[in-house]
Design goal:
644 residues; alpha/beta; Rossmann fold; seven-stranded mixed sheet; 21 helices; EC 2.1.1.-; membrane
């Protein structure tokens, strides 16, 4: 009996010890979770954007940068009084990431490589559109003005310097009409195009009155006249491509009509025309109609526009018009003004013979006819053609007009990275009736931004369906709400020109649509899923890009760059340092970058950007500290090159 009592008491004690252990463990877990939640709450004060980055680290980096710069005689660092700089000096707030993750960072001030400024002659350096390098290439079909990127021994490991008196650009919408002369010190266009009102110099700033070679009464009046011929204001037209855009006056004035234009022009004798557009907050990119496809998917644009763009549409058997046909949406419009349109009235002023102009117009008319386009307007200085909504009738006509033939279906119509132009018509998706829009009809804007795109409905993007698309929209709605808390200036117009370096389905751009900004959606050519066509079907613009190469833009043209999961794609393909230096080149002083990736990748990025005059800090994921993906928030310092 005594033995039974002893066994009973022993079991009871064991149960009590186990209960005590469970209680203590539960209390510890609860305390940790509550503490993590409390520390992860994002501050809502107006200075929270960069105050979470911590003043101690900022001061330490400033001292390190100062000691480095004092030994460099060719660098002139300047302080700035803008809101971004003041935010950096705000009262420090404890960073949530480090309180949750006790990792030993191997990055120290002693191991940081500090990058020196490049020579001032490189202040407007565009790596893949360098004119000296371009002269090595054939002039046929403008090949010498296409992308030709530097070889390994030509790569730069230095920081592109801003001009000595660089100023933060005007805010939108004032920026549409004004830019600081010191930021783009080129008066050539104000002299060369003085009569055409491209640009005027007023003291220390430029003014852009909205003129252009083809806009004698200004771009606004030009667009009003155009809207009497095609429906520009009912939401059916959202995306446009402006070939040979000048300073992008056409694109600038389309914006107030909720039309987003991809304006492009080469880097040629008209110095800095694309740079002037981007400086003013107008979407633009360096580009040319040459021997390779434009870097956009098939069926991307609602309208294509050329006003005295100097593209020889009639040459090479209409090859350039065939490329316009590829990127034009079913039912889209091609608008041509300037030579040879209305040549009977203007031929003397154009200093060309009537015979020459008539032959050019006849060649264009014939090329458009062979593409199955229909001419819908020929009034005044405008000629407008419309692409068919499907190829049912066109296939029948091709039995008679066999040139150019329709490309084989195996042709990758969306693929456009260094792919040579082809003298065949890009086939449209099959339609069941003459009234059906090939590939699917689009919603009018603004419903188009969140409607499921036809490419997804038709299942042309592997493993992407309507449910995944809608979930992605919800994810970005939550992310932008979080970004507003860590960057309170986001909805206030501080960031006009924004780039998403890995855009996926365009959810970031869609979540930003209510703010006074625009997004250049970039789909890496190495991305697992090629989704740029989906982005255009949502009413946004973008381009393909290999981030092992330079981007086709001028330095200091973007206010905010988003890079989610990008470096996981490229870490084994090319030098991460070169990608970061390219980001520094295109980012404006005091611009902001958000990286999203795993901790290991972000700490590697941070170790490099610490030597680029950037201030940065790692933050937790918007869903809390238990998510492996983290956020690196970085700000580029204000500094300028030396005065001559």
């Amino acid at each position: 009996m005594a033995k039974e009592n002893s066994s009973h008491h022993h079991a009871e004690a064991k149960r009590k010890r186990l209960l005590w252990i469970l209680c203590v463990s539960g209390f510890c877990i609860l305390s940790y979770v509550l503490g993590a939640w409390q520390n992860n709450t994002v501050p809502s004060s107006s200075s929270a954007v960069y105050s979470r980055m911590g003043c101690d680290e900022t001061k330490a980096q400033s001292k390190s940068s100062s000691s480095s710069s004092s030994s460099s005689s060719d660098e002139n660092l300047s302080s700035s009084s803008s809101s971004s700089s003041s935010s950096l000096d705000s009262e420090p707030v404890e960073l949530d990431f480090e309180s949750h993750h006790k990792i030993e960072l191997k990055i120290t001030n002693q191991t940081v490589k500090h990058f020196k400024p490049c020579d001032m002659s490189l202040s407007e350096y565009t790596p893949c559109e360098d004119r000296e390098r371009g002269r090595r290439f054939d002039r046929n079909m403008m090949k010498y003005r296409e992308r030709h990127c530097p070889s390994k021994d030509e790569l730069l490991y230095c920081l592109i310097p801003p001009p000595p008196n660089y100023k933060i650009p005007f805010k939108w919408p004032q920026s549409r009409d004004y830019a600081w002369y010191d930021n783009i010190p080129h008066k050539e266009l104000s002299i060369e195009k003085a009569i055409q009102n491209w640009i005027q110099v007023e003291g220390e700033r430029f003014r852009f009155p909205g003129g252009g070679t083809g806009f004698p009464n200004g771009a606004d009046a030009y667009i009003d006249e155009l809207s009497r011929l095609i429906p520009l204001t009912d939401g059916g037209i959202r995306t446009a491509i402006d070939t040979g855009c000048g300073v992008a006056s056409f694109g600038a004035y389309l914006l107030k009509r909720d039309i987003l234009a991809m304006s492009f022009a080469p880097r040629d004798t008209h110095e800095a025309q694309v740079q002037f557009a981007l400086e003013r907050g107008v979407p633009a990119i360096i580009g040319i109609m040459g021997s390779i496809r434009l870097p956009y998917p098939a069926r991307a644009f609602d309208i294509a526009h050329c006003s005295r763009c100097l593209i020889p549409w009639f040459q090479n058997d209409g090859l350039y018009l065939t490329e316009v046909d590829r990127v034009l949406r079913p039912g889209g419009y091609w608008i041509l003004s300037g030579p040879p349109i209305n040549w009977k009235k203007h031929w003397k002023g154009w200093e060309r013979t009537q015979e020459d102009l008539k032959q050019e117009q006849d060649s264009i008319e014939d090329a458009a006819r062979r593409l199955c386009w229909k001419k819908i307007a020929d009034k005044g200085d405008f000629a407008i053609w419309q692409k068919p909504i499907n190829h049912i009738e066109c296939i029948k006509r091709k039995r008679v007009h066999k040139s150019p033939p329709i490309c084989t279906k195996s042709d990758q119509s969306d693929f456009a990275w260094y792919k040579e132009l082809e003298s065949c018509v890009t086939p449209l998706p099959e339609a069941n009736s003459p009234e059906e829009f090939a590939g699917g009809a689009l919603e009018d804007w603004p419903d188009r931004a969140f409607a499921v795109p036809p490419r997804i409905i038709r299942g042309t993007i592997p493993e992407i369906n309507a449910a995944i698309f809608r979930k992605d929209n919800e994810v970005w709605k939550e992310r932008i709400a979080y970004y507003r808390q860590i960057m309170p200036e986001l909805p206030r117009g501080r960031f006009r020109n924004i780039m998403d370096m890995n855009a996926y389905l365009g959810g970031f751009a869609a979540a930003m649509v209510k703010y006074p900004s625009w997004v250049m959606n970039v789909v890496p050519v190495d991305a697992e899923k090629q989704t740029l066509g989906v982005i255009y079907e949502r009413g946004f613009i973008g381009t393909y890009q290999d981030w092992c190469e330079g981007f086709s833009t001028y330095p200091r043209t973007y206010d905010f760059i988003h890079a989610g999961g990008l470096f996981s794609i490229y870490e084994n393909r090319c030098d991460v340092t070169l990608i970061l230096l390219e980001m520094d080149r295109i980012l404006r002083p005091e611009g902001t970058v958000v990286f999203r990736d795993n901790v290991e990748t972000l700490t590697k990025i941070q170790s490099i950007t610490n030597g680029m005059k950037w201030t940065s800090r790692i933050l937790d994921h918007e869903k809390g500290p238990f998510i492996p993906e983290k956020i690196l928030l970085a700000v580029k310092s204000y500094w300028t090159g030396p005065s001559s």
